[in-house]
Amino acid sequence: MRAVQLHGFEGIKSLKLVDIGKPQPGEGEVLIAVKAAGMNYAEVEQIHGKYPTFGKEVPFVMGFEAAGVVVDTGAGVTQFKAGDPVAALVSSGGYAEFAIAPAQAVIPLPTAITFPEATTIPIQGMTAYTILKYLVMPVAHESLLIQAAAGGVGLYLVQIAKLFGIKNVIALASSDEKLELVKTLGADVVINYSKPAWAEKVRQSTQGQGVDVVLQMSSDKVGEESFKLTAPGGRIVLFGAKNYHDSISTEQVRQLIWQNQSLVGFAYPALPPERIAESLPDFLKLIEEKKVKIFANQVFPFSQAPQAFEALSSRQTIGKVVLTPES
Predict the structure, then answer these.
(1) How is residue 289 annotated by DSSP?
(2) H/E element holding 58?
(3) Bridge-partner residues for 171, per DSSP?
(4) Backbone angles phi, psi at 162, to 5 degrees
(5) What is the pLDDT of residue 244?
(6) How many Cβ atoms are within 10 Å of 140's Cβ, its own excluded?
(7) Which of 4, 86, 142, 191 could disulfide-link 95, Cβ–Cβ 3.0 to 4.6 Å?
(8) Helices (H) and strands (E) in the chain, counts
(9) What is the tens place of the pLDDT at every residue in 207-252?
(10) With 90 as the cut, is the pLDDT of residue 147 above it?
């Protein structure tokens, strides 16, 4: 089978399209014929050696998630059969024509959803839903700041935050096109963070009080400014690969103490399994009822994996970036 492997940690040039053997499912596992593999920013960090490989040594097949059709199951798997359309967190690498996933990480797909759209569910969609449900625990009158609001997680966050009843959703994006999109999805305030004085516009949108909840996805200058925008007694939630190697500065610690703020980290795969299990049906119902829109129009064939990585790392894309076995 064809697969995209990582052969080192020197960025895009370490990616190789290879022909390797098809994996076989073991006990409790499912073999999936991959129709679409989702890309995440963590993988941009991974090809530079800035994100863990979770025990895998190079070369290995990249990709945390995939969507496709079940072709075989291992011993003990009764909830899936050949022909079932699914999405999954995969253990063997999603950038391949076939992938293995533990049965408990496989998600039956809602009707009328494409395979590229389905790749948004296992990580980005469930991250957005569970981070809001379990960490933000939104209160209607609060303000919520979403960085990279036109990215894969951000688009879900905007929509689900409004469904949860948050009155003041402040969305940051880097272009007028992205701002227009998140506005149509329900964002109350949209601000271009690539322009000067964007932080002051955020303050103005909260009548100078600061933001009650900051979803801190970025650790760069935008992240530093967002941290400062937190209201007294507010909450900052750190998540995403961009925060993986950064530390909290002394100035930020002082801010947390003297402003009575709380700082918490979040990683969706590390949630207790029972919380994932209880959240998944509710999230899938939102998709079934078309209460959230899915954006997965940036599709590249495996042979153009380097171009896909360039598009994702440049932050010029909107929504999910997807790889497919087809040309």
Answers:
(1) T
(2) none
(3) 146, 190
(4) -70, -40
(5) 59
(6) 9
(7) 4
(8) 10, 16
(9) 999 999 999 987 778 889 999 999 999 999 999 766 656 678 899 9
(10) yes
Q: How far apart are CA 214 and CA 325, in angstroms?
A: 38
Q: What is the pLDDT of residue 40?
A: 93
Would you say the pTM of this structure is higher than 0.70?
yes
How does DSSP assign 88-144, residue by residue? EE-SS-SSBSEEEEEGGGEEEPPTT--HHHHTTIIIIIHHHHHIIIIII---TT-EE
- Cβ-proximal residues to 241 (8 Å cutoff; 6+ apart), any chain: 40, 41, 42, 44, 45, 50, 51
How far is C-alpha 213 from the chain's CA centre? 19
The DSSP secondary-structure symbol of 325 reads S
The fraction of the chain above a pLDDT of 70, given in percent, is: 98
Determine the Cα–Cα distance for residues 203 and 302; give it in Å rounded to an integer: 44
Instruction: Tell whether the torsion through CA atoms of 192, 253, 266 and 235 is positive or negative.
Output: negative
At 236, is the secondary structure helix, strand, or coil? strand
* Radius of gyration for the alpha carbons in the chain, expressed in angstroms and rounded: 20
Q: Output the average pLDDT for the chain.
A: 94
Q: Are 11 and 47 in contact (CB under 8 A)?
A: yes
- Per the CB < 8 A criterion, the answer to whether 99 and 23 are in contact is yes
Length, in residues, of the chain: 327
Placement of tokens 């100078």 in the chain:
208
Burial string for 78-99 (b: 16+ CB within 10 Å, else e) reads eebeeebbbbbbbbbbbbbbbb
What is residue 138's predicted lDDT score, i.e. its pLDDT?
78
Q: Residue type at 92?
A: S
Strand order in the sheet with 15-19: 15-19, 2-6, 60-61
Q: Which two tokens stand for residue 167?
A: 């009155």
Distance CA(91)–CA(317), nearest Å, equals 27
> Bridge-partner residues for 86, per DSSP?
68, 108
- Between 71 and 267, the higher pLDDT residue: 71
The C-alpha angle 123, 37, 193, rounded to 5 degrees, equals 55
